[in-house]
């Protein structure tokens, strides 16, 4: 089951983020598949704001994981596995985060295939005709 959203510009992203959270209300693990520069982190920032994250949301490119706190929904973990090999993800204990009860947003999940489960939301993004296409797959 999937649904597609189309963002004509960045001002569309907050509304799309809320629709994604409404559509995926039973899920807390999100996998983001997209080329560099398509807007994964921008969408994750918008999703985090709708989850009432009280911290500044930024790309975890060099830290690998950022931990954010919310005022009512626990923690949100934001991973960037672009520069990481799967063995390193295990070494840092990623399975505890990914199989725990907190929200997890994962950029570049293709680098950790054995940590992916069927009950995770897949978000595929690309640019088509100058629009961001965001497909959410359950």
Note down, in words, how this protein is organized.
The chain has a single domain, classed as Rossmann fold (3-Layer(aba) Sandwich), CATH 3.40.50.300. Helices cover 24% and strands 30% of the residues. The protein contains four helices and seven strands, in the order βαβαββααβββ. A hairpin with a 2-residue loop joins β6 and β7. α1 packs across α2. The radius of gyration is 14 Å and the shape is globular.
Number of strands: 7
Instruction: Please name the CATH topology.
Output: Rossmann fold
Query: What order do the strands of the largest sheet run in, or round the barrel if closed?
Result: 1-7-6-2-5-4-3
Low confidence ranges: none
Strand content: 25-35%
Structural class: alpha/beta
CATH architecture designation? 3-Layer(aba) Sandwich
Main sheet makeup: 7 strands, mixed
CATH level-four homologous superfamily name:
P-loop containing nucleotide triphosphate hydrolases
Q: What is the typical, i.e. mean, pLDDT?
A: 91
Number of helices: 4
Task: Supply the key terms.
138 residues; Rossmann fold; single chain; alpha/beta; seven-stranded mixed sheet
In short:
The protein has 4 helices and 7 strands; from the N terminus they run E-H-E-H-E-E-H-H-E-E-E. With 138 residues, it is an alpha/beta fold.
């Amino acid at each position: 089951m999937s649904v597609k959203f189309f963002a004509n510009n960045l001002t569309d992203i907050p509304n799309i983020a809320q629709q994604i959270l409404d559509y995926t209300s039973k899920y807390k693990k999100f996998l983001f598949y997209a080329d560099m520069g398509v807007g994964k982190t921008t969408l994750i920032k918008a999703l985090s704001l709708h989850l009432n994250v009280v911290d500044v949301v930024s790309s975890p490119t060099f830290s690998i994981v950022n931990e954010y706190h919310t005022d009512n929904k626990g923690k949100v973990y934001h991973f960037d596995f672009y520069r990481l090999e799967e063995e390193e993800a295990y070494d840092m204990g990623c399975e505890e985060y990914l199989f725990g009860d907190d929200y997890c947003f994962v950029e570049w999940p293709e680098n950790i295939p054995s940590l992916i489960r069927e009950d995770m939301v897949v978000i595929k993004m690309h640019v088509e005709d100058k629009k961001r296409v965001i497909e959410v797959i359950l």
